[in-house]
TrEMBL record:
GO terms for cellular component: cytoplasm. Pfam families: NAD_binding_10 (PF13460). It comes from the Bacteria. PANTHER family: NAD(P)-BINDING DOMAIN-CONTAINING PROTEIN-RELATED, PROTEIN YEEZ. Residues 7-182 form the NAD(P)-binding domain. This is NAD(P)-binding domain-containing protein. GO terms for molecular function: aldehyde dehydrogenase (NAD+) activity. InterPro entries: NAD(P)-bd_dom, NAD(P)-bd_dom_sf, NAD(P)-dependent_oxidoreduct. It comes from uncultured Nocardioidaceae bacterium.
Amino acid sequence: MKVFVTGATGVMGRSAVRALQLAGHSVVGLARDDAKAAALSDEGVEPVRARLFDIESLAEAFAECTVVCNMATCVPVGSQAFRPRAWRAHDRIRSEGSRIVVAAARRAGVQRVVQESVSVIYADAGDEWIDEHSPVAVNGAVEPAVMAEAHAEEFGCASRDWIVLRFGAIVGDDALTSWRLSRARSGHAVGFGDPQSWTSVVHPDDVGSSVLAALSAPSGTYNVGAQPVRRQELVEAFAQAVGRVQGRYASRVLERMGGERVELLTRSQRVSSDALMQAAAWKPLHGRFGVHWLTQPSRQVVGAR
């Protein structure tokens, strides 16, 4: 199958590319410039020059592709993530970019669209389990993700399929995790919210394994993550990984100052990924979080489903 991946050089896109290639699929990637094109070629991906916000060039790029996986993001890392303007590019990619991707896919005759999203859109549920039918709590920080989901769903019809993958927080071999490890090493806070609250995490490898599973799943929205963990376990793992006795949490004052984006990080979300497991026989490569996620490189093998 010929699969187009937007954001193919990012954390999620690279994982998707590896999983698709290992399963024998031909992968095409969006390249904005020569450097991106060269990077894609080095990974065995066919680079296509196009612009994410240009429906004409995208539709041409999607030609002959059966599936489009929209993994494009621009998540700011580090202290800049707490600056509202830093999220403008990311929010535009999710809201406007996803609409154009879907329109271009429809024009090109693509049969299936897979759209990335996030599980933090769910409302705080305490200790209760969360599934795809649980209430969401939309604020300005997650509204672009909700818009992207709506655009994907609008793609669906009798002859076209749509998939939304709501990912937990990516923890592993990625820039944000590296930054948090650096914070922990320096004795700074890496945790938010109640230590006994729940959070959903996903290993980078399982972004790819779930995208692969999404190629055969019925149209719909699916959560993607390992077994949920209490924040205390997550923060302690970061401390252990850098040789610290104890991890630290941000103060309530700092959480309030952080606004809507930090509020997302304090929600208790015990998210279940059973639906994707049942619908597409997906099984995460990393089903349970542990400190080894922070100390061992990613792996990806055939049979990721």
